[in-house]
Specification:
Number of strands: 2
Radius of gyration: 24 Å
Shape: globular
Number of helices: 20
Largest sheet: 2 strands, parallel
Distance between the termini: 66 Å
Length: 464
């Protein structure tokens, strides 16, 4: 049976990776292109890092500058992977999306093996696939958010009332996760608060057999990791302040929306978070139906004694909810991108992980047994269906939006076509020149800022 487990799980993992690879590489570059202004700036800095200009995104244009509006983590990862793979940053970002998917699957296999099948299916949803198609820092950020949940669970599940040698590894892992989240997105600076709340919620929910000393020690480990992380993050922000006069690049403007508009935007965004998981519910239900014959085949067998110790779902839910609260509060105070698939999904991802863990433990659902008990031919058919259906999920969403008269997002021509068109259009401009574009930041022409990092590109939005 162990071989069947592994074979079926391997087929499932390969089908999920195939979906993400198709969406990221084929739909994201060969058949169409999808990027936003943040993507362009990330890739522009990656080119400058490769050229030795580090945090100066205008170095190849012969100007000074400091990359402080966004953290340097994602562009640095793109630059490193681009250098190793010999791919330009655009294509490196697409392949990196697949690597992030594989990393999540490996993390689930290592830390929550009983729930691996349903966690793998969770990656085939509209929000995650759309993020994978773009060149966005949310890709590695989501991986580290999952790491944060499991790191906090290590603290929650540990015993002992004093901080000792065993605590060192947990503290180091948590501190590294805090710093990693921050270096990818500034909101990661609040991660220690999310972790502290998660530990407190788990302690409140499970008060039996836990002395006050154990609870204090767990919060103490989070506090020590937070102190280390905040010290390092404070140095980074101080460096930004010295180099460009602001800890985050510029003073963020106040949110222009009224309270009513902010509430409507929040409710709409939260509804779309639920919508993104419709495919997961369908596939999970299909997997349960395929399980029916297993129950029949096992009639008369003696039940296996199984320990249902698993990660605390409450910790994941607490972190995910706190992430949503953080983003909503920040967006109600300052103006930046509308709440949507990028800003909220990392929290939604953790809430979903938490719900699966809670349901699995309450109902003692062993997803590994459900998948492993399926004959290989049935599991293979399920995986083929998943790969074929999931590969065109985003196109189906756009078509459905058009049919329903809903607003949809735009995708461009294949990247090679767009690249050739933009380079030809601005081919006569000398290196070091300043170019003002009369287009939207997410427009095709703004790709010039990445394709020609030797130019100073700015945008003058047309007056309405």
């Amino acid at each position: 049976m162990d071989r069947n487990f592994r074979a079926n799980c391997l087929m499932l993992a390969m089908s999920v990776v195939a979906v993400v690879a198709w969406v990221a590489i084929a739909e994201g570059g060969f058949l169409s292109s999808f990027y936003i202004s943040d993507s362009v700036n990330y890739m522009r800095l990656a080119e400058n890092i490769k050229a030795g200009n580090w945090m100066n995104q205008h170095g190849l244009a012969g100007r000074d500058g400091w990359f402080a509006v966004w953290p340097v983590g994602y562009p640095a990862l793109l630059a490193a992977f681009s250098s190793v793979s010999r791919l330009e940053p655009y294509w490196a970002s697409k392949v990196f999306s697949v690597i992030c998917c594989v990393s999540l699957l490996a993390l689930f296999w290592k830390c929550a093996r009983r729930q691996f099948p349903i966690f793998a299916l969770m990656l085939v949803n509209l929000a995650y696939l759309k993020i994978s198609r773009g060149s966005l820092s949310e890709q590695p950020f989501i991986v580290l958010m999952a790491c944060l949940g499991f790191a906090v669970n290590r603290i929650i599940q540990s015993d002992g009332a004093r901080i000792g040698r065993d605590s060192v590894g947990r503290i180091v892992l948590l501190a590294l996760t805090f710093v990693g989240l921050f270096i990818l997105r500034y909101v990661g600076a609040v991660a220690p608060v999310w972790a502290g709340v998660a530990v407190a919620v788990a302690a409140f929910a499970n008060r039996r057999g836990q002395g006050l000393g154990v609870k204090i020690r767990r919060l103490g480990e989070v506090a020590i990791a937070a102190a280390v992380a905040w010290a390092l993050e404070g140095c980074y922000l101080l460096m930004n302040r010295v180099m460009c006069g602001s800890v985050s690049g510029y003073e963020r403007p106040v949110a222009p929306e009224s309270a009513q508009e902010l509430v409507r935007m929040t409710l709409s965004a939260e509804f779309h978070e639920l919508q993104a998981y419709g495919i997961c519910l369908f596939l999970g239900f299909l997997l349960v139906l395929l399980r029916m014959h297993v129950a029949k085949s096992r009639q008369g067998e003696s039940p296996e004694s199984t320990s249902w110790a698993c990660p605390s779902g409450l910790a994941f839910i607490a972190i995910g909810v706190m992430f949503h609260v953080t983003m909503i509060v920040m967006r109600s105070r300052h103006f930046f991108n509308p709440l949507g698939f990028r800003l909220l999904y990392p929290g939604t991802f953790l809430v979903t992980i938490g719900c699966v863990l809670v349901i699995s433990q309450k109902l003692k659902m062993d997803w590994m047994s459900m998948l492993g008990a399926l004959p290989k031919r049935i599991a293979a058919g399920f995986c083929i269906f998943l790969a074929l259906f999931g590969a065109w999920l985003l196109h189906g969403e756009l078509q459905l939006r058009q049919i329903c008269g809903l607003r949809g997002y735009g995708i461009g021509d294949p990247y090679t076509v767009v690249k050739a068109r933009v380079l030809e259009k601005y081919s006569g401009i000398q290196p070091g020149s300043a170019v003002k574009l009369s287009c939207d930041f997410d427009g095709e022409d703004f790709l010039l800022a990445y394709l020609r990092p030797d130019l100073m590109v700015s945008v003058t939005l047309p007056e309405e």
